[in-house]
What we know:
- The chain is mainly beta.
- Helix content is 7%, strand content 56%.
- Among the domains are: 2-21 and 199-431, Sandwich (lipopolysaccharide transport protein A fold), CATH 2.60.450.10; 31-162, no CATH class; 444-513 and 521-572; 902-1006, no CATH class.
- The relative contact order is 0.06.
- Residues 1-36, 168-195, 241-251, 383-398 and 994-1006 have low confidence and may be disordered.
Amino acid sequence: MLFLATTVVVVLSGAARGQDGNVSFESVSAESVSGESAPRVSPAENLTEDSGAPLRISGLYQETLRWSATDVHLIAGQAEVSQAGQTFAGARMAVFVTETNEGFDTAIYAEDLTITDRNGQRSTGALSFRLESTGVPVFDVRESTAAETADQPLLRRALARLFPGSLDEPRLASMQSPSDVFSAPVPAVQPAVESGSRRVQIRPRSNDPLRVESSTNPDTVPAERVTVITGGVNVLVDGLDSQVEGLNMAPGLIDLSADRVVIWTQAGESDALEAGTTVVQPADARFQVYLEGNIVIRQNQNVIRATHGFFDAAGNRALLLNAELRAFVPTTGSDFRVRGERMRQLGRDRFHIQNAWATTSPYGKPGYRLQASDIFVEPGPSAVVGVDPLTSRPQVGGSPWVTSLNNRFVVGDIPLLYLPKVSGPAEDPGIPLRGITVANDRVFGAQLDTVWDLNRLLGLPKQPGLRLDLLGDIKTDRGVGAGVEGRYAGEDPNGPYQGGGRIYYQYDGGLDNLGLDRRKLEPDDSNRGEVTWRHRQTLSGGALLFGEIGYLSDRNYLEQFHESRFDTEKDVETVLGVRQDYDAWSGRLWGRADLSGFEANTQWLPRGDLYSFSQPLFDGLAYWSSHSSLGYADLQSLQAPTSVADPFNPAGLSWMTDAAGVVAMTRHELAAPFSAGPVALEPFVGGEAAYWGSGFAGESVDRTLVNAGLRARMSASRVFPFVRNALLGVNGLAHKHDTMLEYAWTSVSTGLSEIPQYNEIDENAQERFRARYSQQIFPGVIPEQFNPRNYALRQGAGLWSSAPFHEIADNLQALRIGFRDRLQTKSGPENAPRIRDWMVWEYGATFFPRSDRDNFGSDFGLFYSHYRWNVSDRTSLLTDASWDIFDNAGAVRSIGILSQRSLRGSVYLGLREVEAGEYLKSQTAIGSYSYQMSPKWISTASMAYDIAESEARGTTLTFSRVGLDWILHFGFGLDFSKDNVGVGVSLEPRFGPPSPTSMASLLGLQ
Length: 1006
């Protein structure tokens, strides 16, 4: 409802919006200039191809003036410049014609420009350029008038681009008063008047002549003149001063139209108020208008329609009956409408609308709306948002505040909700219901999930950047749940901040169903829920304060009720810390506690880290990086579930055991990069000293580490411009190749087998899985080939100076070789081709000189390949693989086809194979699609089928109806792991037309 306030304030009181057309240009004067300066030639690019060819300029409307011995033409509507086969067509143009010794130099600034020449046609936003001609440029403009003022937004933009530094110099050479300076409806060029004055013009609404009756009423003091105009009247009022937050804003232009108009002015001040005339009044002069019949009031993109209206320009008062406001909302890309029986202006920027309703639907009778007995509009918390850099005038961009009383949320003609008070910015639609979902399945039974705007329900003023939701759920097989969720973002004197939290209670009278082998698990308690909060605050001097609170009632709550969060989001934890960055240094002091008590993690009480990144030494011959850390750690192992039906084996996380003590380390690396011809070489040497207060045996452990080696990289490219194949979409080829090599030798005093994993390498979801698959997949103990610490060790993941898990290091030698090949081609129109990747292939392997110790007896391992063939701009063939070749090795391979058609939809078909030696072999066919079947219907589906086991893994199907007022989702799903079948219906309000971002989420686009 913010745009109700914005538009009524601006339309009826003339408050400026801070836009180019309404901000006064103090540096541009309307006074006459007795003399002219020397002609000036713009430094813009000269696009002339044949100066002897005639230069033709055309358009619908133009205003002309003279500046610095230069004729200026401000053209709007079908503006076009042509010369010697070149055509420049745009919505608006500023044309500066200067006579030179060689002929004429024409400087042009154009907006929304389309250029047509021998190379074809191309479009651009705004462009400044010059054209030279020996003859006088020929102008063919339908309507032309002399500019009354040089205060023109188009002129300011043109001067800034064509003549940098000249904004203080525009002057009018003469002052003319044409009979109808508003006759040309120029969309982007609005005349302005001096602050403190008002200009009024009367003109017919159509081609029919006006009937004007004017008389003087001597019975008033002072005497007044009453002018009655019929026949369809258009009244233009320019120069209505307004104030926002106590600041004088620039004048604005209001367009009033009605069938019949009565105007009251002071006798003797506006005797010439007739059709086609222009009257200039003082800003405080009396000017009152009564309008009747088909009233239309326009200002910028906002329109008000009414049957009766009264407008007092001097007193900034107005009253409209049966009025409807239609305002464009940039944040939603649609119109916002407010209709009321009475729309009354109480003061300069305060309004009262009675018996009104508001909606974003363009229909006469919207499917949903918020009806209120009274709506009050007042200035928002920050109406002035800055200063125009060109004019140094205050710039309006804040949100007037709207408060409505006795509200009813109506769907159709049925009131669904009553709210005594609603308060918030105008762009907020005022609907308290954010979403509702109705579903039924075998896990939760029948479900009703709702999300409500808590500010609306409580009638609290809405704070910018803050969102508070009330959550209410009913699940017939489990119980009821309720809670609050919030997100916030803003900026205080210290800097920007953001965060969010959730408090939720769930009563559960059923059994958890978490998938195969875990379908009937009894919760520890029927009272379940969570308390989570995350916050980040930027402090002065580049510091960052971060904090989290995380509490879960039991180990399975999050996985059961919020599975997507459990699988994809970061761990729920409690953290508090501060980070300071300075140049190439970064320090962090932080602590972490475990409030839940059942996960495998480390409590840091507290911990400090200091990093340095690539500090130059010896005048850039070498670079030093380091990481030092000191803290007290309390490592706890994964706690066994209370239910014996929940599979669990502590051997799955054998590297995370109960241990506590001081953990300290300092690691340093020196690198000396240089080039040897086409090869970039980087020898390096690093060392570490580390201490753990408690190892696997309960005794303290210390370790020294030395790591040395060489990194190398060579890049090469070759272009094949004549390789073309229309079938394969090849229009020339460029081959880019990179070869990467790293040899690393590592020696440690203490092996990895003696050091617990204080710094986690997995998130909680993966750790839970590892505790199960040791008995679901493997024979009770995870083989060393599938121990994640061994895999990370062979990859060298713990050897970097800033590695998050420095424990992962042992005696090792490895030569890692990688290649990257990229084939690029051109696509698109011939006159404007673009470069795109045609094929990309990354592949490599690792050689282990001591394979018996380091790679289970195989000289080569850690093979990988990632290949992408972009068959076209929309379709790609994707393959990925990683594997080893020793006995009982693992392998992951996949191949698929992905096709995306902009906002039409996407489809993916693929095959994924996972092998774990003799223990596991899985082949799964995967398919998914999203398709916009019509402008109103979108369907999405996904399927997974295990070919090796000959059984389906899961299927989902959803139909979404995109209506003007609502988006309605119908869903159906099968989950064979949980033996679950579910159907659901979800309803969410829709505000504005579908944007590329919102539609992409429905269509599955990336």
